[in-house]
Specification:
Blueprint lengths: L1 H18 L10 E5 L6 E6 L21 H4 L3 H12 L7 E4 L5 H10 L3 E4 L10 H13 L3 E4 L2
Parallel strand pairs: 3-4, 4-5
Antiparallel strand pairs: 1-2, 1-3
Length: 151
């Protein structure tokens, strides 16, 4: 049990570090996917623009009108896409992320075969993603993905 806590702290710390690579002025989110035994990194991701898409347009960062949601990819899906690009299977893996997954990311986690996520609790009031977090939590539960709350 102590070993599991140490690894969880390490990977959550790594999520915070990877998150610093994000260009997002609102939230820096990082994600680490580890092997089923929880000791080997399979993939990482952070929230940001897709490869080759320019971050130089200020309108692409605006959250209030929803424009940002068309341009930014979330950390969880970036980690899953990075693994797919490298031909790495994530089935049975553990996903660590420093912000609770939205519904889009929840679907990706389920479809990738990830069996366990470690994340902070759902934010109290996000505004744009409040309902999405609730749907994600329900989908993950129904799909049998174990969710461990990290505080």
């Amino acid at each position: 049990m102590a070993d599991e806590i140490i690894w969880t702290q390490r990977f959550m710390g790594l999520c915070d570090h990877v998150a610093t690579w994000s260009e997002d002025p609102d939230f820096q989110v990082g994600c680490v996917v580890a092997s089923p035994d929880g000791h080997e990194i399979r993939s990482t991701g952070y929230n940001g623009f897709p490869r080759g898409v320019l971050a130089s347009e200020p309108a692409r960062f605006v959250r209030e009108n929803g424009e940002k949601f068309f341009w930014f990819e979330h950390a969880e899906r970036n980690a899953i896409y990075n693994a797919a690009r490298a031909g790495i299977c994530l089935s049975g893996c553990i996903l660590y992320v420093n912000r609770f997954p939205c519904a889009d990311c929840g679907r990706a986690i389920i479809q990738a075969g990830i069996s366990h996520i470690v994340a902070p609790p759902i934010p109290i009031a996000d505004g744009a993603l409040d309902y999405s977090f609730q749907v994600s939590q329900q989908m993950l539960r129904e799909a049998g993905v174990q969710v461990t709350e990290f505080k």
